[in-house]
Amino acid sequence: MTEAHCQAQLDTFTQFQQGQQGMVWREPEEELNPDCISVTVKHSPSKMFWRCFSWSGLGPIVPLNGSVTGQTHAKIINDFVVPTLHTHFSRGNGIFQEDNAAPHHSKVATAARENAGIVTLDWPAQSPDINPIENIWAEMKMMIRCHSPPPSSISVLMEYATGAWNDIPPEYYRKLIKSMPRRVDAVISANGNRINY
User: Fold this and answer.
1) Going residue by residue through the chain (197 aa), what tens digit of pLDDT does each one get?
2) Which terms does the record give in the GO molecular function aspect (predicted)?
């Protein structure tokens, strides 16, 4: 990823972040204090989002309903990718990058990209996960986990996710983009195995 790329990805937030709370320090008499207890939920409600970013800025964060199909992804391309690329790369010189999820390579999504004239970056199917957007996603999840009160519903979770996305400063995502040469060098040095990013 360089200043000429726009990277996109789908990911999910869960309302209750299972097993990701830190340690709780408490006095013996605080054992049942609600502030000192981690809530557990068997099947936490979740919400999937699509988002993208480039050197020029963050694109929209888009909540999605249901599973993502080729048709869903074609709609994302037409409704969000095309306008974001026009905004971030007004000269038409942007390169779009996304992972190899099956909906991204469906006939309908491929046709949507081709019809819009979108240039894409080839990405190996079994590549180490060095996408900088993963770092942004982890940062957002931490921001939501630290939010008080925790999300009480999916609509509140959506509000928190949107707020966290909008609070990501340009210095942060630009630093991630600048780290790409080091990440690629690390993957090469590790013979294609996982690296510490």
Assistant:
1) 677 787 777 777 776 654 445 566 677 777 777 776 666 655 567 889 999 999 999 999 999 998 899 999 999 999 999 999 999 998 888 999 988 888 888 999 999 999 999 999 887 766 656 888 889 988 999 998 888 888 888 899 999 999 999 999 999 999 999 998 998 898 889 888 878 77
2) nucleic acid binding
Cβ density class 105-132: b for 16+ within 10 Å, e for less = ebeebbebbeeeebeeeeeeeeebebbb
Burial class (CB in 10 A: 0-12, 13-18, 19+), 96: buried
CATH class of the structural domain 5-12+44-189: alpha beta
β-sheet bridge partners, residue 58 = 53
Domain ranges of the chain: 5-12+44-189
